[in-house]
Write a structure and sequence with these properties.
The protein has 24 helices and 28 strands. By secondary structure, the chain is α/β, with parallel strands linked by helices. α21 (about 580-590) links the parallel β26 (about 570) and β27 (about 600). The structure holds sulfopyruvate (SPV) and magnesium ion (MG).
Length: about 675
């Protein structure tokens, strides 16, 4: 595609403004002339070849174009008789360079980027018209029938519409018009408009009317036009556009949509907070502060701000952008409520939502998958629990005891209020790991086997892991456990202050259980902390005083002693349905210690919502066994159903489909 710009005219109606250069070099803003703006927009729209006809001030124009240093190849064609002919003859002079799709424009026309984009993207030949502007007395009008331009000239008023000499002409349609122009010029009709030749084709050139309505598309004939257009440009250039990004990798698809958005006005980018990104898709590899800098360094981005939540409300109300730009992927699906909110906020002040087709490019998906794979590497995975705690204040963790349950925790996601919610990490429970092996929860399943479970989970997931280390075993053994877990990429081990034959806490005092002494257990914690190699790994001390009915004071004394010994977090456990003793513990612990994370396993005291735990000062909520306790009864039911019916048909409706399995376990 080439552009043909007609600049042979004298521009005499501009007075002194055109005494030393052609009209197209008239300044329309402090930075641009009519021509430099036309050329910049053409280059932005991907039109990189320009044929320009010249006349008076030919060399001034040629030098000027070259000085602009644009990615455009120029062919200049001088009309030797510019003073006595019209532009029909200039086109005739340039005819050998015009065998292509052509964007044809007069050199004095000023338009906004959207107009050129619509034109260049048009699949058919078209001329820009405006159905909202009044019919001009002396300027071009187009006679339009069924959307097609039949005639163009200043003399038509019936069935006519305001029109501008800005066309896209597809090669074959253009050829018809150009042949007519040649015919005219060779029979000496050189003082008429090129459109006079077009009119003889009676619509055969297939030119559609492209209605640009109120978008700026206007020629500059005199100083009043100039003042008017300059004013409109100022208003256009002050428009703001808002876009939100959650990405931590910038690729070509992002740059493309940014460039499009920039054409609408000054681009404000909202960088989604780390917390919002972690909830919405995955843990960001690059923190919001760095993602902000990334966008600040993209040429032409006006401002970068933080967007705290998926909702645009706060920033739209603050910046009142003229446009919001987004891919069309949110028209349906879980983001629809966010879009609906944006639409209603924009409607309240007259803003506009612009949606572009979503870039579904495989290479960008591969990039994201690679970033996701990174999250499963030991160093990256291990450090993420601490980061999530800092970022969110409260993290939620779900039990996993195998690859498949790991995948369920990894992938289960619910859509609520335009956002998504998913678990932050996985708990490798001693109870569930033992149960899956048909064994009691008494430290019978040895570490080699427990590590195997971790490995199975790690192979197919990326989320951080908290390991249930039971009593931690002998201190001499515990240090090895710490180092092994750390090496594997586990983020935290929780050890409970019991000794001897450990039984599951939920048995409470119904079974014989012995609590370790503060001294012994503190020594174990100290040894573990000394053994670890990184700053990321966390050792959490679990206090069994409430389970063993030793009282609140004992629980608190132990908690402070274990923190003193180096514990990175405290888990307080209870088997009561009533959450009061846990609430009391948190309150009393927080009165003295504001920062050490508090871990809860609300299996029995399960009526309190996460938000309330967060407000009280808890930091990690572990759903310790619900996948096991729901999964196995379903299996028992299936087994019973088949036994009772002597066939499997009755069981069918209870089964997961193969398709669901494939979705859960994709092949690499
Ligand atoms: C586990 O899940 O194995 C636990 C938590 O240790 S609890 O079963 O509540 O003791
Ligand atoms: Mg356990």
């Amino acid at each position: 595609m080439k552009a043909l710009i007609l600049n042979s005219g004298l521009g005499s109606r501009m007075g002194v403004l055109t005494s030393e250069h052609p009209k197209c070099m008239t300044e329309i803003s402090s930075r641009e002339t009519i021509l430099s703006r036309q050329l910049r927009l053409l280059a932005d729209a991907g039109v990189n070849e320009v044929v320009m006809t010249t006349g008076l001030f030919d060399s001034v124009l040629v030098n000027y174009c070259e000085s602009l240093d644009l990615p455009i190849g120029f062919t200049f064609v001088k009309n030797p008789v510019y003073a006595t002919t019209n532009y029909i003859y200039s086109i005739y002079c340039a005819r050998e360079y015009l065998d292509d799709d052509i964007v044809l424009m007069h050199g004095d026309i000023v338009f906004e980027p959207e107009v050129l984009d619509k034109l260049v993207d048009s699949p058919v030949s078209c001329m820009t018209v405006s159905s909202t502007l009044p019919l001009p007395e002396k300027d071009f009008k187009a006679v339009v029938k069924d959307g097609m331009v039949m005639k163009v000239g200043i003399e038509f008023f019936d069935n006519a519409i305001e029109a501008q000499a800005l066309y896209l002409l597809k090669r074959n349609d253009w050829k018809l018009w150009l042949d007519k122009i040649v015919e005219f010029c060779e029979s000496d009709k050189t003082k008429v408009y090129a459109e006079n030749a077009l009119n003889e084709l009676d619509g055969k050139a297939n030119i559609h009317a492209l209605d640009v309505k109120d978008l700026l598309c206007q020629e500059i004939d005199n100083p009043e036009d100039l003042a008017n257009v300059s004013g409109r440009l100022k208003e256009i250039e002050n428009r703001t556009v808002y876009m939100t990004f959650s990405t931590d990798i910038i690729h070509g698809g992002h740059i493309q949509i940014i460039r499009k958005a920039q054409k609408l006005g000054k681009l404000i980018i909202g960088v989604l907070s780390d917390e919002a990104v972690a909830n919405y898709k995955r843990f960001p590899l690059v923190p919001a502060s760095e993602r902000k800098v990334m966008f600040e360094n993209i040429a032409g981005v006006y401002k970068v701000v933080e967007q705290k939540t998926l909702s645009y409300k706060e920033n739209l109300e603050k910046f009142k952008p003229d446009f919001v730009v987004h891919g069309d992927d949110w028209v349906t699906g879980f983001q629809k409520p966010v879009r609906d909110e944006v639409v209603s906020i924009l409607a309240a002040y007259g803003g506009k939502l612009v949606e572009y087709p979503y870039a579904n490019d495989q290479k960008y998906k591969d990039l994201d998958n690679r970033a996701k794979a990174e999250l499963s590497l030991p160093d990256v995975r291990r450090s993420r629990l601490k980061k999530l705690l800092e970022m969110k204040g409260l993290v939620t963790v779900m039990e996993a005891h195998s690859g498949i349950t790991g995948l369920i925790v990894e992938k289960t996601c619910v859509f609520q209020d335009g956002g998504t919610k998913q678990f932050d990490g996985m708990w490798v429970s001693s109870l569930c790991d033992s149960t899956a092996k048909g064994k009691p929860d008494i430290e019978l399943v040895d570490m080699t086997s427990r590590f195997r479970t971790i490995n199975d989970i790690m192979e197919v997931t990326t989320k951080p892991i908290i390991f249930d280390g039971d009593t931690g075993g002998l201190t001499e053994h515990f240090v090895y456990t710490v180092r092994s877990l750390e090496r594997m990429g586990v983020s935290m081990i929780i050890i409970e202050d019991k000794t001897g034959l450990k039984k599951n806490s939920l048995f409470g005092t119904e079974v014989q259980q012995t609590q370790d002494s503060i001294e012994n257990f503190s020594a174990k914690i100290r040894a573990g902390k000394a053994a670890q190699k990184t700053q990321d790994f966390m050792i959490c001390a679990r206090i069994e005083s409430l389970i063993l009915e030793r009282g609140m004071e004992d629980a608190l004394t132990r908690a402070f002693a274990f923190v003193e010994a180096g514990a990175d977090a405290i888990m307080i456990h209870s088997r009561k349905k009533d959450p009061s003793e846990i609430k009391e513990f948190i309150e009393k612990f927080r009165a003295k210690d504001k920062t050490t994370p508090i871990v809860l396993v609300p299996t029995s005291f399960n009526t309190v919502y996460e938000e309330e735990w967060k407000e009280l000062g808890a930091n990690i909520i572990i759903y310790a066994n619900q996948l096991t306790r729901t999964g196995f009864p379903a299996m028992q039911d299936a087994a019973r159903t088949i036994l009772e019916n002597h066939r499997a048909k009755e069981c069918d409706d209870k089964c997961m489909s193969i398709k669901e399995i494939i979705n859960l376990i994709p092949e690499e």
